Amino acid sequence: MEYLRPDEQEGMELWKGRFRWALVLIAVSFLVLGLRLWQLQILQGDRFCRLSDENRLRLRRIPFTRGIIFDRKGRILADNSPSFRLLGVPAEMRDVEAILRHLDGNLKLDKEEVLRKVKLARRRSPFRPIPLQEGLSWEEVAWVENHRLDLPGVWVEAEPRRFYPYGPLAAHLLGYVGEITKERLRKWKERGYRVGDRIGKRGLESRLEPFLRGRDGGLQVEVDAQGRQLMVLNEVDFQPGANVVLTLDVEIQRLAEEALGDRAGAVVVGDPRTGEILAMVSHPAFDPNLFSKGLPPETWKKLIRDPKHPLQNRVTMGLYPPGSTYKIVTAAAALEEGVVDFKTRLYCPGYYRMGSREFRCWKKSGHGWLRLRDALIQSCDVFFYQLGERLGVDRLAKYAWGFGLGSPTGFDPDEEKGGLVPTAEWKKKKFGSRWHPGETLSLAIGQGFNLVTPLQQFVLISAVANGGFIRTPRVVHHIESAQGIPLGPWGRYEIRRVPVKERTLAFLRDALRAAVENPRGTGQRARLPGVSVAGKTGTAQVVEVGEDRKSREELPYHKRDHAWFLCFAPVEAPRVAVVVLVEHGGHGGAVAAPIARKILQGYFQKYRKGEENLGV
Questions:
Q1: Is 57 helix (H, G, I), strand (E, B) or coil?
Q2: Measured between alpha carbons, how far is residue 423 from residues 245, 333, 397, 399, 418 in Å?
Q3: Which of 91, 104, 162 minimizes the C-alpha distance to 133?
Q4: CA-based max dimension of the chain
Q5: Distance, C-alpha 23 to centroid of its chain
Q6: Burial, 113: exposed, middle or buried (Cβ in 10 Å; 0-12, 13-18, 19+)?
Q7: pLDDT digits (tens, 9 = 90+) for 277-292
Q8: Bridging pattern class, strands 76-88 and 130-133
Q9: pLDDT at 611
Q10: How many C-beta atoms lie closer than 10 Å to residue 483's C-beta?
Q11: 3-state SS class at 259
Q12: pLDDT on residue 223
């Protein structure tokens, strides 16, 4: 055995020590590496696999097409047209400021809003595309496509946009669509809604959202490091929304809007037998296409600050004193309660005194001795003051409720006001004071606390026309799938009887017919040759006018009377009812009745007398 020198032996020991430490270091390194691999592949394998797929794979949405809305003749009222929007993946938009600077001057972006969306999405779903800009023009689309390399994580997506072929026509009824709000998104997230989705905001678009909304399709694609598509791995077709067929008639709707003209007000045209709505007008209106494109903030502010309130549906949300149209209720109540009969005569000298107060008739010289029929024909205020005094407020309220006033009709649970039918108890709770008899006199002619909507007036006049049935107005005839498979009727429609005998209703129909056909009738401007028309005028005071003022027309516009006219035809077999309200229009007989006449004339020219099927 060869022995080492002492110095060599010392060197060997040193080398062995270093070798052992090297082995320990290598072992520890492999142990750490193994533990890390175990952590990455076993403990966190699913997470990193998902992140890898998200970085390599993209789910490209194929937007659904919203259901189409048709009128009763199959004409399209709400459709879809192609539109383009700019999308971005927050995880790939590493330098958002640089991207926005590059886009600035070529696209109209709200930088602060885009930054807010990107920051929010990075915390929640960094690989899910978010909308950056809606409604790109062809020029903007071409510019983005030509600069894709300078815009990492950004691309253009084609999507269907809501389109209304007739513009403002029936805008309040149809409503509009807009981007889902944060509050609504929190409530509807479990239904599959996402940031940037467009939903119905008003009218039928909102009420029928569950039916009109379809289901998105999608593409699973593989992308490169710049987010460019390499290949399609999987595809799921989108499901379009259901289609809706309305009872509305575009021609009657246009006719009613043209008859109302530029006046602020409302018109309802429908079938009193079924409650089907043929036309529903609220003016001024708006163009729902503006909302589909994405409404600029300044345009939105202009709409909501407009003193004429173009976004308000006056048919369902406008509250007005009914004026003399309420005399229909007062007359029915007086007959049913035995306060008067068909032969009772009351005197009108042009005023009626109660205590120290004098209540005037619209005809200063008075109407003389009258029976109830003549009082309705000439709309004598003094006659109905006396009926109101004899009935009292609570009995009046009973019949007002019976005719459908004072509560929503059920047409639109979300956007319909109930109006007001006052009682003695109501006033005590509201104001803490008792009811005064003089207040009942005002109620009897449709003034005072009385408030109604034009749609409630349609229900009222329809009940007189159809023999005493209160029907829920309806505008949706049926809903069907995109393939044309009927999904059944929509909505709940109640039917009940008014608390009035047929003899009383027959009397009302005869008196209202005479109000149009009699030379002394206040509704004679609605007279239509060859067609019997029954109607009632109403002039609802907004403010009282003193004796020193010569004419109500001298008042500022916003203090002038509202003009009403309710009618139906033909009287023998009613097929159409019309309600016209002109805000601050003046006298119902002079302003509203001629509008109703134009609508009736157009209706009977379109639908031959006696024709039953209107096309649905």
A1: strand
A2: 41, 15, 6, 12, 15
A3: 104
A4: 154
A5: 79
A6: exposed
A7: 999 999 999 999 999 8
A8: antiparallel
A9: 47
A10: 8
A11: helix
A12: 60
CA 208 to chain centre: 10
Q: What is the pLDDT of residues 392-423, one digit of tens each?
A: 999 999 999 999 999 999 998 888 999 999 99
Handedness of CA 597, 599, 604, 605 (dihedral sign): positive
CA separation (Å) from 132 to 222, 292, 394, 420? Answer: 22, 16, 59, 47
Alpha-carbon distance of 218 to 71, in angstroms, equals: 32
Sheet of strand 277-283: strand arrangement: 277-283, 265-270, 576-582, 562-569, 534-540
Using alpha carbons only, give the angle 84, 85, 87 rounded to the nearest 5 degrees.
140
Distance from C-alpha of 26 to C-alpha of 31, rounded to nearest angstrom: 8
Helix H or strand E segment including 371: strand 368-371
**E-assigned strands of 203-250?**
217-223, 229-236, 243-246
Please report which helix (H) or strand (E) contains residue 102, including its range. helix 96-103
Question: CA 593 to CA 538: how far, in whole Å?
Answer: 10
Q: Which residues pair with 573 in a beta bridge?
A: none
Inter-residue contact 14 to 22 (CB < 8 Å): no
Q: What domains are there in the chain, each with its CATH number?
A: 58-246 (3.90.1310.10), 250-293+315-606 (3.40.710.10)
Name the residue among 44, 50, 62 with its Cα closest to residue 91. Answer: 50
Is the confidence at residue 105, as pLDDT, over 90? no
Nearest to 400 by CA among 425, 415, 418, 381: 418
- The vertex-345 CA angle with 342 and 348, nearest 5°, equals 130
Cα atoms found within 13 Å of the Cα of residue 175, Cβ hemisphere only: 18
Q: Is the torsion defined by CA of 476, 480, 484, 486 positive or negative? A: negative
Residue 215 DSSP symbol = B
Catalytic positions, written as ranges: 324
The whole-chain average pLDDT of the chain stands at 87
Q: Is the Cβ–Cβ distance between 542 and 584 less than 8 Å?
A: yes
pLDDT at residue 584 tops 80: yes
Confidence of residue 118 (pLDDT cuts 50, 70, 90): confident
Reported confidence tier of residue 520, pLDDT bands at 50, 70, 90: very high
**The predicted structure's pLDDT at residue 547:** 46
Residue 1 has pLDDT above 60, yes or no: no
Q: Name the 3-class secondary structure at 141.
A: helix
Angstrom distance (rounded) from CA 391 to CA 377: 21
Kind plus residue range of the DSSP H or E element containing 155 = strand 154-163
pLDDT in tens, 28-77: 888 888 777 776 667 665 655 554 555 555 566 667 789 999 999 999 99
Find the radius of gyration of the CA atoms of the chain.
36
What distance in Å separates the CA atoms of residue 70 and residue 380, rounded to the nearest whole number?
45
Strands (E), 168-312: 177-179, 198-200, 217-223, 229-236, 243-246, 265-270, 277-283
110 pLDDT band (50/70/90 cuts)? confident
**Banded model confidence at residue 147, pLDDT cuts 50, 70, 90:** confident
Nearest in space to 575 (alpha carbons), one of 278, 250, 270, 328: 270
Q: Which pLDDT does position 556 carry in this prediction?
A: 82
- Which residues have a Cβ under 8 Å from the Cβ of 152 and sit 6 or more positions away? 92, 93, 94, 99, 226, 227
- Where residue 530 falls (left for φ over 0; alpha for ψ -120 to 50; beta otherwise) is left
Q: Which residues make Cβ contacts (< 8 Å) with residue 509, sequence separation at least 6? A: 464, 465, 534, 571
